Amino acid sequence: MESLLGPLLLTADPDGALTSLSVPGQKGGRTVQEGWRHDRGPFRSAEEQLAAYFAAELKEFRLPLRSAGTAFRERVWAALDSVPYGATTTYGEVAAQLGASRMAVRAVGGAVGANPLLIVRPCHRVIGADGSLTGYAGGLDRKVRLLTLEGSLRARL
């Protein structure tokens, strides 16, 4: 689907649960594979909700999601799901929320970067402890757009 961030590639499992949302050039992102079929049917709700989100009319996605990761990654991704629209958190705060040590901040960063569900699982809301906009698998320009849309970052002139 087309979006404020450019084309989005959505994938789903046979039950219709969203399994990935990728952007072109995304580090570790999905690309169309041979044998895949194009069927917008399972994605109608996701497309409607994403369109409403990009129009600043939706603050919380209500979609069936299914992702597979290590137990640690799953815990980090669940923590991302708890960061509300318009707010940000830090890698250290996520580690603390999980009861992990300060040494786990890098592991948290790796798990955040491996998030297969950009936008709907809001990894863009994780920033550096000093407020810097550290890495984003979809590219820092897209992170800036998302945080600006949500009001947690002023538009840059």
In short:
With 157 residues, the chain is α+β, with helices and mostly antiparallel strands. The chain has helices spanning 44-54, 71-81, 91-97, 105-113, 140-149; strands at 9-12, 18-22, 89-90, 126-127.
Overview of the structural elements:
The structure is a single chain. The protein has 157 residues and is of the alpha+beta class. The protein is 31% helix and 8% strand. It contains five helices and four strands; from the N terminus they run ββααβααβα. It has helices spanning 44-54, 71-81, 91-97, 105-113, 140-149, and strands at 9-12, 18-22, 89-90, 126-127. The strands form two sheets. It has a two-stranded antiparallel sheet. Strands 3-4 form a two-stranded parallel sheet. A hairpin with a 5-residue loop joins strand 1 and strand 2. The longest helix has 11 residues, at 44-54. The chain is globular. 25% of the residues are buried.
Q: Compute the separation of the termini in Å.
A: 28 Å
| Residue-averaged pLDDT | 89
Instruction: Tell me what portion of residues adopts beta-strand conformation.
Output: 5-15%
Shape: globular
Biggest sheet details: 2 strands, antiparallel
Rg over C-alpha atoms, rounded to the nearest angstrom: 15 Å
Taken in chain order, the helices and strands follow as EEHHEHHEH
Quick tags:
alpha+beta; two-stranded parallel ribbon; single chain; 31% helix; 4 strands; 157 residues
Topology diagram in text:
Elements: E1 9-12, E2 18-22, H1 44-54, H2 71-81, E3 89-90, H3 91-97, H4 105-113, E4 126-127, H5 140-149
Parallel strand pairs: 3-4
Antiparallel strand pairs: 1-2
Helix pairs in contact: 2-4, 3-4
